[in-house]
Amino acid sequence: MVKVLKTATTKLNNKIELLGNDNHKNILVIGVFHGDEPQGKFLIDEYLKINPNSQLLFIPCLNPDGMAIDTRTNSNGVDLNRNFPTKNWELTERNDSFGGEISASEIETKFLIDVINEYKPVAVLTLHAPFKVVNYDGPADEIAEKIGRIICYPVAASIGYPTPGSFGTYMGVERNIPTITLELDEECPVQDLIEPVHKIFELFEKI
């Protein structure tokens, strides 16, 4: 049975939770990096309702503060997907892609880094929106192609613009861990994403 394995409390006193069971695989699924992309939490929650013995590790909502206030960033105005301590992290202007005053400055980023260090995932899937593409970093081309066939999205090694301090760079490029960024179609009703995304979760269950 899936249970809470690790928690952290955010600036706005919301909980970030790592869920898994005692016999989990070291495969991690993450929802809501960006607070205005809530689809991931819904899809993970729905999956766990019908698969309470899932062997995957889940962080249904990495950015509960951003989700609560409907912003891409967290409550400090930091884009968590630009806040990782990568070789290409850089101090940028304050906008929706601001990576923080220093890398790994945020509670949410530190929590995820702690999870990575403790559980050492061998593959990671993150759920984003809105670009309708299967983006990947590291040695993930084969699994990315399988995911693309399930959800009928194109597969791309590059999202098409610079992403300094991104999680994909931190995990896939610099640590050589297969890392998938599944960009969901935000115009598609989230209910219609349940079937394909749950099939993708099932694919990871079989790895």
Fold blueprint:
Blueprint: E1 3-9, E2 15-20, E3 27-31, H1 39-50, E4 57-59, H2 64-69, H3 107-119, E5 123-128, E6 133-137, H4 141-151, E7 155-156, H5 167-175, E8 179-183, H6 190-205
Parallel strand pairs: 3-4, 3-5, 5-8, 6-7
Antiparallel strand pairs: 1-2, 6-8
State the main characteristics.
207 residues; Aminopeptidase; six-stranded mixed beta sheet; 6 helices; 8 strands
Principal-axis shape equals globular
- Main beta-sheet annotation: 6 strands, mixed
Strands in their spatial order, largest beta sheet: 4-3-5-8-6-7
The CATH architecture designation is: 3-Layer(aba) Sandwich
The percent of residues in helical segments reads: 25-40%
N→C terminal distance: 19 Å
Roughly what is the average pLDDT, rounded to an integer? 96
**If you compute it from the alpha carbons, what radius of gyration comes out, rounded to the nearest whole angstrom?**
16 Å
What is the tally of beta strands? 8
- What is the CATH topology classification name? Aminopeptidase
The CATH class designation is Alpha Beta
What proportion strand? 15-25%
CATH homologous superfamily placement:
Zn peptidases
Number of helices: 6
**How many structurally independent domains?**
1
Structural class: alpha/beta
Stretches where pLDDT is under 50 for at least 5 consecutive residues are none
Structural description of this entry:
With 207 residues, this protein is α/β, with parallel strands linked by helices. The protein has a single domain (3-205), classed as Zn peptidases (Aminopeptidase). Helix content is 32%, strand content 19%. It contains six helices and eight strands, in the order βββαβααββαβαβα. The strands form two sheets. The chain has a six-stranded mixed beta sheet with strand order 4-3-5-8-6-7. A two-stranded antiparallel ribbon has the order 1-2. A hairpin with a 5-residue loop joins β1 and β2.
